[in-house]
Amino acid sequence: MSESAKPHHPGPQVKGEKPHGGDFSYVGIDAILEQMRRKAMKQGFEFNIMVVGQSGLGKSTLMNTLFKSKVSRKSVLPNPEERIPKTIEIKSISHDIEEKGVRMKLTVIDTPGFGDHINNENCWQPIMKFINDQYEAYLQEEIHINRKKRIPDSRVHCCIYFIPPTGHCLRPLDVEFMRRLSKVVNIVPVIAKADTLTLEERDFFKQTIREELRANGIDVYPQKEFDEDAEDRMINDKNREMIPFAVVGSDQEYQVNGKRILGRKTKWGTIEVENIAHCEFAYLRDLLIRTHMQNIKDITGSIHYEAYRVRRLNESNGHFTPHPTVEPKANGQPEAQPSALQANGVAAQHEALSHEM
Length: 357
Fold this sequence. Notes:
single chain; six-stranded mixed beta sheet; 11 strands
C-alpha cells in the first residue's frame, strides 16, 4: 500500500480540547482557558465580605438574600435577646457554598455595636484594625521561608456600608467612616430599607449622597482610577451612577402571578426584591457576584494590600518588625503569635519576598 493510501488513525482527543476541523494553522493556545477553568474548579474560590451599619438596618437579611442561604451570623447563631455590645465586636462566620460545581468559601464579617451608642467617636478604629490585621496575617505568611503552597486569604475584599434611610443627608459618622476606610478596603455604600422612601425621596437622597462623597473626596467601589480601559470605564460609569444602591432585603418567598419571588408583603402589595422597578438589589447582586467579584479581589490584592505591604516593609528606616497580632481566630478576632521571621534591613526583606506570587 502506498504511503498516501495508508489509513489515518487520529489520536485520542484530550479532555477539554476542542476539535479544530483539520485546521493546519491551529496551535491550541485557546486550550489554556479550559486548563485554567479546571484548575479553578478544583481549588475553589474565597470571598470575604464585611457588613457595617447600625443595628436594625437589615444587614443579616441582605446577606441571606444575596446568597440565597442562611449565611449571616444571626441566622447561624440566633439570639433574640442579643444585647447591644459596649464596644464594637468583630465577628465572622464562614460557609462553603456550591453552585453548578463551583465551590466558594464565603466569609461574612459582622460589626455589631457600630453606630449604636450615644458617643460614636472613633468607632471606626476597631474595624480599621481588623482589616489591617488580616493584611498583616497574609504578609507574615508570604515572608515565611517555607511558606504554604496556597496562602489562606482572610483579607476583607469588600465592605458594604449601610446608610440609614433618612432621606436627608449623610451623618458625620457616615462621612468619617467612609473617608477613612475607603483608603484600605473596597467600600460599596447602600441605602438600607429603601422601601421606606418614596421614589422621589430616594432619588433626591441618592443624589445628595453622591455629591457629599465627591465633596469629601471619598472614592467608593468601583474606583474611577482603576478602570483598565474604555470598556471598563463604560460599564463602571453605569455602576457609579447607581451608587448608593437603594436596596430591600428579604428571605421570605411569595407567589406573585404564579412565580416564586423573594419579597416583603405589605397591605398595599408585595415588594419584589429582585424587581428593578421596586429596588436596586439586583444591580448590587450583579456587581458583587456576577460581574465584578474577581475585580474586587484583584483590587484588594494589587492596590489595598500592596499599599499596606510596601508601608510595612519601609517602616523604621527599612527595619521590618512584624506586628504581634497576625493570626485571626475562627471568630475573626486576631490572636497573638510569635513571628516566624526576624528580618533586619531591606536586603533580608527582599530575600524573603523573592518568591512572591
